[in-house]
Specification:
alpha+beta, 4-stranded antiparallel beta sheet, two-stranded antiparallel ribbon
Amino acid sequence: MKNFYVLTDALEFIEKSICEDFESQAVADYCGVSLSSLQKLFRLALHRSVRDYIQRRRICLAAKDILHSEMRMIDIAYKYQFGSPESFARAFKKVWNESPTSYKNSWKFSGICPRLDYHYEEGADEEMAGKKVDISEAYDEIVKMRGSYVICFDIVGLMPINEISREAGDVAIVESLKRIDRVAGDGMIPLRIGGDEFALITGSTDRAYVDELVKEVLSHNSEPVSWKKRDIPLNLRAAVVQVPAKNLKYDEFFVGMHEAIREKREEERAMSPDLKI
């Protein structure tokens, strides 16, 4: 149980201090543990170092500022503790595979590394707490879309890609988001709801139109992503649910999206038992 509290304290400290100048050691000091112990915990739970997680959260928030504010790039860079616009651009490209300026001109989505919300369950210390992405910021907008369709996506076989390299997995995630982002119209809300799971809140009650969006995204299946001159096929699956028309409860809606993906995965497994899903 101690690991759970250390992790939640660390994530809370990072969120509160994200625009301040601090190192990984400061996070460990706040949690009252050694840096090596904290690094081990982050790699176990998040598959990243403390520094890498901090960097990715800063880039995620910077991307939001790029899309939704009038701030200059240099001011965004300094806001998130990058020493120069050049170092910011390098870090940004490492996450998004393109420059901040190119990103501004071609993307709608920004939450590539959303805040995590951990939930402790009795006896779960060995496996860490169950985690979910915190999409509460979007709740008020989702409420306005009651009754509309939501397309839930996940990557088919991300684990084998991660076994090649975690960096290859990161590239696959960005490309998956790009395929979804391309079809997202004005007013739609694209979200990352898990490690390899995404949702597009369409705001539409026209199922035929939504099915066309699904068809467009999945038409790119088997197109490869490139990592270190290696082509890796990338496929997505999709399931469609609706935002509850009444009594929209955040937790139930979140679980419902994941359940739709799980059912689709099980359906595919039943049809193709040897499929790597």
